[in-house]
Design goal:
3 helices; single chain; five-stranded mixed sheet; Sulfate adenylyltransferase; alpha+beta
């Protein structure tokens, strides 16, 4: 499983069931794919990419800046420029990724979907599917 590390919990967003991250565009972000989320190198949770939007630095608005970083648009843009000082943001694309935290309840529901309902439909989870 691929890891995504956060050096800082901007806007305390990692405490929610859904959170965003604004990063350099990269094909590793794929809807439906799960990732190990770390904060300062320590495992925090497992999350699934629910959606993403590709944008340019100039496209960051108050919703994106406020929810993702907890800062104003100019402050958010400055943070990104400092994080990636060698990038040309006239051409560099960004990606705003929406993650859904996978909880124990979610895992239980996923396991229920593995119930063997073929045959007589006895609802028994087979060893192969456990």
């Amino acid at each position: 499983m691929e890891t995504i590390n956060f050096s800082y919990n901007w806007n305390n967003k990692l405490a929610g069931r859904f959170f965003t991250t604004l990063r350099l565009n990269n094909p590793k972000y794929q809807v439906g794919k799960t990732y190990q989320i770390q904060l300062k190198g320590k495992d925090l949770c497992i999350a699934q990419c629910a959606d993403f939007k590709i944008l340019m630095l100039k496209d960051i608005n108050s919703y994106i800046a406020g929810l993702d970083t907890g800062y104003t648009v100019p402050q958010c843009k400055e943070i990104i420029r400092k994080m990636y000082p060698t990038k040309n943001f006239e051409t560099q694309r960004l990606v705003l990724v929406l993650f859904h935290v996978i909880t124990k309840k979610d895992l239980q529901l996923l396991n229920l979907n593995k119930i063997n309902t073929a045959g007589e439909g006895d609802g028994v989870i087979t060893e192969e599917k456990q």
